[in-house]
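We were asked to recover a plausible sequence for a given structure. The inputs and outputs are reproduced exactly as logged, with field labels preserved.

PROBLEM: sequence recovery
POSITIONS: 400
GIVEN STRUCTURE:
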């Protein structure tokens, strides 16, 4: 980071949106751990750190009387764990802006850490309110954004606040910088053959991604529920599989565009079909184009796994977003697992692989393969939007 933090108060936006159990214990502290290098760096240089984050969706889950459920969504739940991992006593401000927050911020000494209350307790946060952002900015001398997971949101603490700091007084944290660099590596320096793997439930969620990939990659592998909309569009019988009837024309258009651009789209030739959306359903391995009535494709079949894996293993650059089947159920996780192993093997043989976007990240973690791919993104929606070619507001706000 270009800023010298000595004797500076750094206002740092982190993503501490961690999962909590019923007693408000943190069940997975990955997001906190991911922010530690940036926090430690500032402290080591002799700065003080003022942390801002959201937790959950308090505005959407207001109580019956319309009030914020402070007991549930307060960031106070994180203080003791954060103090433990940092090895110092983290101070907590019960408000984001206001007299208490500014008194606590102004009396903060170098080497100290102050955590502010949930930014989403302020109704102006998600609206990107300028007055709120201006008040936030007064708490620190410099601003650091390390919350890649919310970089696609133009909120007060993630984006608007940055404009109240001069260009030399605002910076990306290490996590955010790393994410941006890896996404840019894929987008700006493609190595060929370049294969994109997409999966998950819906074509409609991935249209922009597929369209963008048509200008970028050599092969697009399509698995998961979305494959059946393509199978039906090309005249297949898909039984009771997931389908978006209103996207059949679009699916054909995407196939035609791919052909015109010389991009190969691979659809699963066969599927594991089930007579029920349940792990213990009766199964049939069938052609993805001849799924009997009463059955639904819930995973890619053995032939598809082999065909997809062969293409993946001969690729030099790979992006993966979305599972190949209902991987949460063990009987339909085989396809996603086979693809994860193929991506790991390609990576071992020198390919660059990026796994980004919610469920494929969960799948790679679940299979213990996260350290066998080149990069696993921490930002689901944010990474997806970057790969779609959008300029994220949280990034623009820092780099201009
Ligand atoms: P997405 O959030 O769009 O990446 O979708 C992920 C979800 O798609 C996961 O919860 C999967 O269980 C689900 N999914 C994957 N394949 C299928 C399928 N063949 N049928 C129904 N749901 C699927």
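RECOVERED SEQUENCE:
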């Amino acid at each position: 980071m270009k800023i010298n933090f000595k004797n500076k108060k750094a206002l740092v936006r982190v993503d501490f949106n961690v999962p909590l159990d019923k007693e408000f214990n943190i069940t997975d502290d990955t997001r906190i751990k991911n922010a530690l290098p940036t926090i430690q760096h500032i402290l080591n240089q002799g700065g003080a750190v003022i942390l801002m984050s959201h937790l959950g969706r308090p505005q959407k889950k207001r109580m019956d009387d319309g009030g914020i459920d402070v007991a549930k969504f307060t960031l106070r739940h994180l203080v003791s764990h954060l103090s433990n991992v940092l090895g110092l006593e983290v101070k907590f401000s019960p408000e984001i802006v206001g007299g208490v927050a500014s008194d606590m911020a102004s009396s903060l000494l170098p080497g100290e850490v102050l955590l502010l209350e949930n930014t989403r307790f302020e109704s102006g946060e998600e609206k990107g309110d300028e007055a709120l952002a201006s008040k936030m900015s007064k708490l620190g001398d410099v601003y650091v954004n390390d919350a890649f997971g919310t970089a696609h949101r133009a909120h007060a603490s993630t984006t608007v606040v940055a404009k109240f700091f001069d260009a030399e007084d605002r910076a990306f944290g290490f996590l955010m910088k790393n994410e941006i660099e890896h996404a840019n590596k894929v987008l700006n320096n493609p190595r060929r053959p370049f294969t994109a793997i997409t999966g998950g439930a819906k074509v409609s969620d991935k249209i922009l991604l597929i369209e963008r990939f048509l200008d970028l990659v050599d092969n697009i592998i399509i698995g998961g529920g979305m494959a059946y909309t393509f199978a039906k569009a090309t005249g297949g019988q898909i039984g009771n599989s997931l389908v978006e009837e209103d996207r059949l024309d679009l699916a054909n258009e995407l196939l035609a565009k791919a052909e015109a651009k010389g991009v190969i789209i691979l659809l699963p030739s066969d599927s594991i079909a089930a007579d029920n959306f349940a792990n213990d359903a009766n199964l049939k391995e069938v052609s993805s184009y001849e799924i009997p009535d009463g059955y639904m494709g819930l995973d890619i079949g053995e032939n598809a796994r082999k065909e997809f894996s062969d293409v993946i293993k001969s690729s030099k650059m790979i992006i993966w977003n979305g599972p190949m089947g209902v991987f949460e159920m063990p009987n339909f996780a085989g396809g996603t697992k086979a693809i994860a192993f193929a991506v790991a093997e390609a990576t071992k043989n020198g390919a660059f692989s990026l796994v980004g976007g919610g469920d494929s990240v969960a799948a790679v973690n679940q299979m213990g393969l996260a350290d066998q791919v080149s990069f696993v993104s921490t930002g689901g929606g944010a990474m997806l939007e970057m790969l779609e070619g959008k300029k994220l507001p949280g990034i623009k706000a820092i780099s201009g």
